UniProtKB/TrEMBL annotation:
The lineage of its organism: Archaea, Methanobacteriati, Methanobacteriota, Stenosarchaea group, Halobacteria. This is DUF8076 domain-containing protein. Pfam families: DUF8076 (PF26277). Residues 4-128 form the DUF8076 domain.
Length: 129
């Protein structure tokens, strides 16, 4: 299954991309309306969110959502592949379950996007730009 236009959240790479960025660098470039070469693979999103102070994670997600929403770096037909080390969970809300020393932790990655990601397979979901 190829990458679709928009934000692809995957646990296994769907496609090889010529460009790869760490999540923090990706969001910095997008926030500054930098030139993001797409399709791009973004790694470490789960670590970025997990390492935020637990009480502030929802604020961090909200700020990152605004960065994506206000960006002129990405067009509607661009494809971003967020490669996460975890399990996609689409029950009441779209989340990613990651394993840490204290056990499973759920991250509300679905809140990053204007529309909830649509799960295409157990390892691939897509949110439109």
């Amino acid at each position: 299954m190829p990458l679709r236009p928009g934000y692809n959240i995957v646990t296994d790479p769907v496609a090889e991309t010529d460009s790869s960025l760490a999540a923090l660098e990706f969001f910095r470039q997008v926030a500054n309306d930098g030139d993001v070469q797409t399709p791009v693979t973004v790694t470490g999103l789960e670590d970025l969110l997990y390492n935020a102070v637990e009480d502030e994670r929802s604020d961090v997600v909200a700020r990152l959502r605004q960065v994506l929403r206000n960006s002129e770096s990405l067009g509607s037909m661009d494809a971003v592949q967020f490669l996460v080390d975890g399990q996609l969970v689409d029950d009441v809300e779209f989340r990613v379950r990651i394993e840490r020393a204290e056990g499973g932790v759920y991250l509300d990655i679905g809140q990053l996007f204007v529309e909830a990601p649509q799960q295409l397979s157990p390892t691939h979901a897509v949110a439109r730009k």
